[in-house]
Specification:
Elements: E1 3-14, E2 21-32, E3 36-40, H1 47-54, E4 62-67, E5 70-71, H2 77-87, E6 88-91, H3 103-113, H4 118-131, H5 147-159, E7 165-169, H6 177-194, E8 197-201, H7 205-210, E9 213-218, E10 221-230, E11 233-239
Parallel strand pairs: 3-8, 3-9, 6-7, 7-8
Antiparallel strand pairs: 1-2, 1-4, 4-5, 9-10, 10-11
Helix pairs in contact: 3-4, 3-5, 5-6
GO molecular function: ATP binding; ATP hydrolysis activity; transmembrane transporter activity
Pfam family, one: ABC_tran
Keywords: ATP-binding, Nucleotide-binding, Transport
Length: 242
Amino acid sequence: MNTVIDAHQVSKTFNPTTIPILAVNNVHLHLERGEFTALVGPSGSGKTTLLNLLGGLDKPDKGSIFINGVDITKLSPNALIDFRLNNIGFVFQSFNLIPVLTARENVELIMQLQHKDRREINERVETLFREIGLEDKLDTRPAQLSGGQQQRVAVARALASKPQFVLADEPTANLDSKSATNLLDIMAKLNQEENITFIFSTHDVRVIERARRVITLVDGQIHSDTAKVSTEVPHTAQKRTP
């Protein structure tokens, strides 16, 4: 395995000039390629903030975040946009699909921004929609899709650029049990077959049970970091050193 993320002494404070809220407090985190990891903890524990920091959507007040050896905290805004485009996939709780575009067009957009040729785009879209089981919904707009279908399209969009890893913020929160299970099956399959790293921010026990590593945040700090010994014995665990 090779290192995807190395975060060192990362902190983030909101409202520093009024009533400061220390959302992430001196976090150290190391993730290897192919991990399937859940960030858990009570509301306000810093899960989403940490996810946004790892994805370069927010910038830490202090500390460094290395992705594939690149310190993203030192990149210019334009360089950071390019880096995210080519290295990181995002899946949001609210789907964030563009309503005027079809499912196909939503997934194609990121590859167009990467200046891929049309043949490569078509092949990638067909492969992804086959993986998510929505080959018959390519030309359907988001409003005509169920919540579970929209989230599967969002996963396809996140994977379109062939990212090093995917950050998913509460990806099952708005889904019924069957849709959530289907979505997790898809992501677990992609993780195992393509060695794509997945990092979830979640309260959902279904996600936590499927994760092979569970990191618990409390008050912006890593409270525990537990890796499952074997996927075949999911309730047996060993402690990692945070």
